[in-house]
Amino acid sequence: MAHRLVSGIQATGTPHIGNYFGAIRQMVQLQEKYENFILVADLHSLNQIHDADRLRSGTREIVINYLASGLDPEKTTIFLQSSVPAHAELSTILGSITSLGLLERAHAYKDALAKGREANLGLFSYPVLMAADILLYKPEVVPVGRDQQQHLEITNDIASRFNHLYGQTFSLPKGIILDEVATVPGIDGQKMSKSYSNTIGLFESPEVVKEKVMKIPTDSRRPEEPKEVDTLLALHRLISAADLPEIEEAYVKGGMGYKETKERLAANITSFLQPFHDRLAEINTKPGYLEDILVEGNKQANIQSNATLEEVKERVGILSL
Ligand code: TYM
To answer: Which position among 24, 44, 138, 164 has the lowest Cβ density within 10 Å, counted as fewest Cβ atoms?
Structure first.
């Protein structure tokens, strides 16, 4: 059987370099090796977005970002979670074997409440729908950033419980969380996140990149003084291949001021983002391209997920006539 990979992004805002390094880059690299199923988690986004136009544009934006990042529809099935009804159906079935205690311990849920988000049922049951997203495709691997680790553990807990109750159905997928990019910092030093307004988007203009990078907080060390590993250096480590040794050395021994370090980072981010802009321009010349990709992707995802759903229904005793 083919080795499969599943991953996804919510349609809650513009994807950023944290999403790229934490997850999208792995999806792109691994499409050569795995049968990729990559979704736009639009149903998940509904627990946060209650504005139809925003959800529609957010959904398109994720698909465009996938393509501009190098996901190839010939190799990767790109689809909308909402266009594959098996996700919602399996989520309902799994919800009946998921304890409240398991969901109450979810950090993402607790953090969202602590930040004043509405405590709706969609937010609370989020990990169950995510478990359905994953288990329907029986994947071997799921590339994600560190913030999704607990959700993967919950997925495996739910799968194990299902197997225990109904017989071996799901093998447990492994997360691919790369240490060096597991949590990309935002321009304020916290985790880069759409909800913290501290992101650098994949289609950001050079002017905005510069403006954002110049805002990264630094201490009062003078150019000649050695510096601590900080957000600036962490971002250089991701972005700056050619001048990284020089910048690392200037950090350890002193010799480069923060202003110069920031200017170089902004320039390097701008060059790094150029291919994303180029691919975006190309996508924009093809009317109907996105829709065609999604129609085909939705079809493939429906075929695959319906096969698993039928098996699940049989196991739990739901008549499928
Ligand atoms: P989401 O939309 O919050 O983020 C998408 C992916 O980007 C990663 N990520 C980061 N990685 C490193 N540093 C950061 N600062 C950073 N910010 C975000 C996330 O870890 C994630 O991998 N629940 C998921 C979406 C989802 C999903 C799935 C993922 C729905 N169903 C099935 C995998 C499989 C989420 O909210 O990701």
So the answer is: 164
